[in-house]
Specification:
About 60% of the residues lie in helices and about 15% in strands. It is an alpha/beta fold. Helix 3 (about 50-60) packs across helix 4 (about 65-75) and helix 5 crosses helix 6. The radius of gyration is 18 Å and the shape is globular. The chain binds adenosine-5'-diphosphate, uridine-5'-diphosphate (UDP) and magnesium ion. Its EC number is 2.7.4.14.
Length: about 210
């Protein structure tokens, strides 16, 4: 009787250890989420999943039933219903089969958080939230520059940016606060230069990787 029990425990322990680890990366539009995720991926074994990129890809997929809706939401800086975004993230996580993911730009509101917890909480392990804290002035300038440099995005203009910042303050900040209350937020001042930010990133990710 003892052997099957030990085997059972071992099997359980293994499956818990094998759950993919998730780090959410949040911050205002232009705070540097995509840029910093790229840097992390170059230095640590993570897969970068940008919720915004996945939505833009879906929007451009011929025959997608959600394409028009996503287009409209992005231009207005509104948050797409979680069923769509979480579905895309889940598919990408499962397809990749990797063990660590940076989920960039999600969860952005309560609907995102509720939907994620309902579908994902059993099968992944959210480790912490990397919060890139950056002023609205700096972020606006960076997004306008990104637009001027040919990002091709429909939302890198002043009109959409105002709406995106509203959404960020009213809907995303409460999610960051929620995780802060759980002691799960690593805050980095991303107003600074990239080398300065990367120094802080190293201080967060090197111990995390060696402990996990
Ligand atoms: N620390 C930084 N200093 C200067 N420019 C930056 C910095 N971080 C990002 N950028 C630039 O600002 C723009 C927005 O960065 P991005 O990583 O796309 O932010 P987000 O994904 O948060 O919108 C990009 O053009 C990027 O090259
Ligand atoms: O989980 C998400 C992520 C993005 N978006 C939409 O996609 C836009 C662009 O998001 P992205 O993260 O690419 O912008 P960034 O903050 O990186 O500039 C947002 O304003 C939203 O309209 C969304 O609805 N849900
Ligand atoms: Mg981005």
């Amino acid at each position: 009787m003892l052997i099957p029990l030990v085997q059972g425990i071992r099997k359980f322990a293994m499956s818990a250890a094998q759950k993919p680890q998730i780090v959410f990366v949040l911050g205002a539009p232009g705070s540097g989420k995509g840029t910093i995720c790229k840097n992390i991926v170059e230095n640590y074994k993570f897969i970068h999943l940008s919720a915004g990129d996945l939505l833009r890809e879906e929007q451009n997929t011929e025959g997608s039933e959600h394409g028009d809706m996503i287009k409209e939401y992005i231009k207005l800086g509104k948050i797409v219903p979680v069923e769509i975004t979480c579905g895309l993230l889940k598919k990408a996580i499962e397809k990749s089969g990797a063990s660590r993911f940076l989920v960039d730009g999600f969860p952005r509101n309560q609907n995102n958080l509720d939907g994620w917890e309902k579908v994902m909480s059993q099968c992944v392990d959210v480790k912490f939230v990397l919060f890139l804290d950056c002023s609205e002035e700096v972020c606006t300038e960076r997004c306008l520059n990104r637009g001027a440099q040919g990002s091709g995005r429909t939302d890198d203009n002043l009109d959409s940016l105002k709406k995106r910042f509203n959404t960020y303050s009213n809907e995303t900040m409460p999610i960051i606060k929620y995780y802060e209350g759980k002691g799960m937020v690593e805050r980095v001042d991303s107003n600074r230069t990239l080398p300065e930010i990367f120094e802080d990133i190293k201080k967060i990710f090197t111990p995390f990787i060696s402990q996990s």
